[in-house]
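Running this now, will post back.
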Amino acid sequence: MLLKTPIINSLFIGLLLSGFSLFGQSPAGDTVKLNVKQAEDLFLKNNLQLIAQHYNIGIADAQVITAKLFPNPDFSSTTGLYDTNTHKFFDYSAGQAEYSGNISQLFTTAGKRNKNIQLAKIGVEQAKYQFFDLLRTLKASLRSNFFTIYFQEESAKVYDTEINTLQKILKAYKEQNAIGNISEKDVLSIQSQLYSLQAELAGLEAGIDASISQLQLLIRTKPGTYIEAEYNYELDGRDILTTVPYQKLLDSAYKNRYDLRLAKSAVEYNDMNLKYQQALAVPDFNLSLGYDRRGGYVPNYTNLGIEFNLPFFNRNQGGIKQAQLTIEQGKVQLQGQQDQVENDIAVNYLTVSRYEKLSNSFDPKFRADFTHLIQEVVKNYEVRNIGLIEFLYLYDSYKVNAVQLNNIQLSRVTALEQLNYVTGTPFFNQ
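Update: finished.
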């Protein structure tokens, strides 16, 4: 129904047209505009999880230093406490003093030291793999949250525009209802649609806030900072997936997935650990050199000794058996990890393909054409070629399609990011 007063009707149209330029305001507090490159730079500089994990590499390096060190020699010395002949304590008078000393050194056998060094070096490689796998995982989370924020903020702008417009319509309708120009049914209909949009926007903003919270933790911005994501979407009409052959994706994953390299390293570690456990079955020995001034069978007695245990009972059978089982377990886990990698690539490749076909099936001019159409609809409403109900229907259709298009673009970008993640290589969407 049109407003009956021409002057009020013209004012009402002006309010509608102004709605197209209104967007949601940022919440109170600091607002930071970031593109994805800036977000990644802050992440690499500030992320505490990454910094803490990097220390593990240094810790593993220190374990190599420890493994290279030789055992310290042992030294002992004794002296007489009480001489029963002279009835003196610590009697060092001529011909009476008694003291002895001994020094010994442990020598490891069967290459235990070198094997332990090799285990420690593999530990360094594992620490590096764990660091780079954490980097891959956190970076994927950062980019996923960033793109979610961007496309949901774009959708929130669409909601803001329609909500602002409906609020102006509702205000004008209430004024006209008060003087009998508009029925209360029309006022309630607009209120219902307005409240529905506000509820949808509240849910959308809750999702944006959750993604911003995750991004804040990753890049360590001040809590309460509102992040505006800046991104130039340029994927429409492009066959991105065809630029990289499937086999190249698979080969890259085998080479660059650090969780897979960690699983392979675990097998190497277990192989070396078996050798180490077998070496532990071979006894080490102590060489010692001693001196005793008066306690031996001759004065100034010196001695050379050797000490080692006899492996009659304990030959490290349990440790060797455990190491053998760990090798078999590691091989099974490695195979499982390889199967997971292949499955991840196959599934995500199919997902990207589907969203790429769906996205490319849309006319790239669709959004601009639809926006122009809505502007023409407003003009037609102004000259009374269409009624208010039809106008609101078309206006809401614009919102639905714009939000749906944002969701499709987000799904496509997210699928490409996930394919980057499972291959361990930034092939797409850089």
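Residues 1-28 have pLDDT under 50 and may be disordered. More later if anyone needs it.
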